[in-house]
Known about the structure:
Elements: H1 11-59, E1 61-64, E2 67-70, H2 74-83, E3 88-94, E4 97-101, E5 118-124, E6 127-140, E7 143-154, H3 156-203, H4 222-270, H5 274-306, E8 313-315, H6 317-334, E9 338-343, E10 349-351, H7 353-370, E11 376-384, E12 387-393, H8 426-436, E13 440-445, E14 452-459
Parallel strand pairs: 9-11
Antiparallel strand pairs: 1-2, 3-4, 3-7, 5-6, 6-7, 8-10, 11-12, 12-14, 13-14
Helix pairs in contact: 1-2, 1-3, 4-5, 5-8, 6-7, 7-8
Amino acid sequence: MNSGANISGSIRRRLTLQLLGIAAVLAALLFVMVMTYAKQVAEESQDNILSASATSILDSAAIQSGEVTVDIPYSALSMLGNVSDDRVFYRVVVNGKYLTGYESLPIAKASKGQDSHRFITSHYLGESIRMVSATRRLSNASGPVEVTVSVAQTLKRQRETLERISANAAYLGFGFFIAAAVLGVLTAQSAVRPVQTLANSVSKRGPQDLRAVQAPVPGEMAPLVVALNRFMARLKKSLTRSEEFIAEAAHRIRTPLAVLRTQAEIALRRVERPENRAALKEMIRAIDESSRAAGQLLDHAMVSFRTDHLEVKDINLLDLAEETLERLRPLAEMQDKTLSLHGDEPPPISGDAILIQNALSNILDNAIKYAPKGEDVQVIVTHEDDWVVLSVYDQGPGFAPEDIDQLTERFSRGKNAEDTVGSGLGLTIAEEVTQAHGGHLKLSNRTNVRGACVSFYFPQS
């Protein structure tokens, strides 16, 4: 999948984890905010009722016959009892002296900035309480009288309410986290989708398609697309130059060698001394070897180049073989050899006609060289299962059994070919072309007669 890419983490995974982390923090903040607000509202509600109860008791305080009397209104305590099942405590103090109520109930002391109603949270008789203390001044003949009322209520109901709110807030926070997590995953996938779209757009192209990428991408990916397009433009220019160089090199190497061989043959006809004729024959052989090696090296370079950039189309192997044989028939006839083609109409294959023809030409050239004079080189096209098979049969010395597995390696020549001009690239070219088309090459010796067989196996379209 990565094709050797240096992978360092995953943008999708990193973005997803970051969004999940943010969602978790927001869910926790939501829970804290809800609980803080709920506690504040619960305390304010209880404080308002406590304050109203204390005020009601203070309003009932009066001086009769010089004595302070407090008639506790029923409503003052019933308003607390009706709200919940919490216990209610009260205490009335006149000028610091206990008058009525729970004598041990503390009085909330006023702190700086507090008004006449002082609220505290404390413990009384083993329970947590919320308490308010309020003071009122009355006028008496003997002087002012200060009446202080403390009213307290346990926090059981408030605690139960906060627990219910806490559970609901937890469900809300968890639901928020799940929703945010799903949105985070979708967002991460959406964020990396343009990268996948771009990758698919490039990977679906054919080997020859080096056009600039036109797929719509976000602005953040524009530098990547620009760099990719520039690279493809440079690659296209480089490939064009390489193809032109191979063609030019083939022309410039083969032409002088052909001229040199012609001149050597002319000189051979004019020379009479045996030692000079032997030298010229050796020169002609060396020229043939150089020409053959140069030609096959250039063919191999062209094959190596085109196998990565196949120009694929439907090919009829029978027609292609006929065309190739027509081109090589004059060469065979000059050596008193014949070329024949056999086979029924095969299914088409998908491939690069130039490469397949080049590979077949190299194998036929070898067969013509190794076949004895007057013999026939046969090309047979058959159909085996899902394969279209193109086989070349000669009547030469065949392959040495110990050499067959190594003959497709570059510059490898068998023992039976040591006295024949060659470079050891013909079978290499044939195998590389066959493999580039998803097929394979098979080398064997003929069973009933002398000679070798080279078979190209191509998958049918």
